[in-house]
Design brief:
Helicase, Ruva Protein, domain 3, alpha/beta, binds S-adenosylmethionine, 12 helices, about 40% helix, two-stranded antiparallel ribbon, Rossmann fold
């Protein structure tokens, strides 16, 4: 089998199929031979696992997943890569490349059809231009996932894995925390990729929760509250909640007081419980 993290192998297989890097699709391919095996190990795969990948590129991580999982479903939007993948993954009979934009695919239907009875995990080196949308789609779709082990831009890792109620936290931190427990696994410098991107990366793992950490009357209102509270980070929660929801400031002030919170509190200081309490009262 070819060494798919070897720069010369990548260049030659791409040249043979007339494929050039598409920056717009976030095509930075891994060339550090230790990263993909470590990611696949961290994903916790076995014969009964169906691994979902987003963006196989030339198949370097796909091959590591295929060695360890019962089945690999890999979504690749760039159809120029299909003949490349046919060649590079020829040794595996448990990989299916799905030539679809992951954001538009019927993930639930595809998983039900192809991974019935299996444990399902996501493991991918994500295209950075849609990191948060992909993660939120995977979580919000309530797919039967055990975990999501992904490479993301370092700054995205900081935000996704921040503690709720800390300075690094944002709306996406709260949203991710509602669905999963997050942890940083390891740092990956920018020169581990071809071509090297401008930013460093980090591999993170989200372990999907069986139940959310807080009970809310309405999930839609909970997320509406979180989005509004973080809509103007430098302002107080009173101001941003008012402009984000259209509810008058004096009403918000009373709700904050009823929830036992200071009028001057900022969104980044609020806990999951605070957001839950606020959303329950705000939209009563
Ligand atoms: N897994 C490979 C690696 O680690 O070397 C490639 C990762 S590269 C960062 C991201 C991959 O995602 C590219 O192959 C790109 O074509 C693909 N991609 C970009 N947008 C996509 C989308 N919306 N749906 C599916 N694949 C996408």
């Amino acid at each position: 089998m070819k060494n798919l993290s070897d720069i010369n192998v990548i260049k030659s297989v791409m040249a043979r199929h007339g494929v050039t890097f598409n920056k717009g699709l976030g095509q930075n391919f891994l060339v550090d031979p230790e990263v993909c095996p470590a990611m696949a190990e961290a994903a916790g795969l076995d014969e009964n696992t169906c691994a979902i990948e987003v963006g196989p590129g030339v198949g370097v991580l796909t091959a590591e997943l295929a060695k360890r999982a019962g089945k690999v479903l890999s979504f690749e939007v760039d159809d120029r890569l299909l003949p490349v993948l046919k060649e590079t993954l020829a040794d595996f009979d448990n990989v299916e490349i799905i030539n679809q934009d992951v954001m538009k695919a019927d993930l639930k239907g595809i998983i039900e059809e192809k991974c019935a009875g299996m444990d399902i995990v996501v493991c991918a080196n994500l295209p950075y231009y849609i990191t948060s949308p992909i993660i939120m789609l995977l979580l919000e779709s309530r797919l039967p996932l055990k975990s999501i082990t992904v490479m993301v831009q370092k700054e995205a890792a900081d935000r996704l894995c921040a503690e709720v109620g800390s300075r690094d936290g944002g709306a996406v931190t709260v949203a991710v925390n509602y669905y999963a427990e997050s942890e940083k696994l390891f740092f990956v410098p920018r020169d581990s990729f071809l071509p090297p991107p401008k930013v460093n990366s980090e591999v993170i793992r989200l372990t999907v929760r069986e139940n959310p950490p807080v009970a809310v009357k309405s999930e839609a209102n909970f997320f509406k509250t979180v989005k509004a509270a973080f809509s103007q980070r430098r302002k107080t929660a009173e101001n941003s909640l008012s402009s984000g929801t259209g509810i008058k400031k004096d009403v918000i002030a009373k709700v904050l007081a009823d929830a036992g919170l200071e009028k001057t509190v900022r969104a980044e200081k609020l806990t999951m419980e605070d957001f839950a309490r606020l959303s329950d009262i705000l939209f009563e």
